[in-house]
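Hello again, I could really use a second opinion on something today. My current little project is about how a certain protein chain folds up. You're getting the sequence in one-letter code plus the fold written as tokens. Here's the protein in full, and shout if anything looks odd to you:
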Amino acid sequence: MSAPTFSDNRSEHAADQHLFLSEAYDLITRARLAEAGVGSGWRCLEVGAGNGGIARWLAGRVGPDGWVLATDLEPRHLTPQRRLSVLRHDIRHDPLPSNAFDLVHARQVLPLLPERLSVLHRLVGAVRPGGVLQLDDLDLGYGPALLTPDQRAAELYQKFLTAKAAVMSATGADSTWGSRVATAMRAAGLVEIDPVPYLSQWRPDSPGLRLQLNHTYRLREPLLAAGLTEHDLTELRALLTDPGFRAVSCVFYSVQGRRP
């Protein structure tokens, strides 16, 4: 099975997507990982590591006695370093050690996988008893425009969001998975589950809207197949860079659970 559209690191737009994801969410992810107690001597698994920003941060936290393994389907944007190993790995199928990590973290990986529930159980199994699983995932079902030049622009933005959800669904992805992560973790046997939602205002210089703009290029063909036109995409790109445009972010859920 080929990589889902949103996670294909071979795209010319992949590096920018990783950058905007990092700029939008790394501060939240790092703060939550720090709350989990990540520190000296921890063994950590970073799944779908993207550009490696979180993996490098973890490597700096675990000290000389710790270790971080960063995996990705296509790890071309990852560089090994001291205490940080890189592995080309398909989390759906490739071998994964059991009871091996103090922390397992993935951000916006499971929503893209039709096998997300089986992958969740694999991740739980990789956590040692007492260790932490943290999943940081989006719910794209909410995120309306707040201020647009006119009603047509508001309708165009909503048309884009609807089309993007359809593109995700066509690949087996789940655009609203973030809101169900905590329940899925509980069903997988984790305890002390702590789901925290985050919302913010998006402006044209916000990384979240820059990511949306990136998707108008990266997902051009599937968006056209989902009903947008070239004219729509041109108008949408102008809207996303309009200084007066405002939107609510989609909901970002950072969810932690502990393996008993």
About this structure: The chain has a mean pLDDT of 94. The helical segments are 14-35, 53-62, 116-126, 151-170, 181-187, 207-218, 220-225, 230-240. Residues 14-35 form the longest helix (22 residues). The two ends are 34 Å apart (CA to CA).
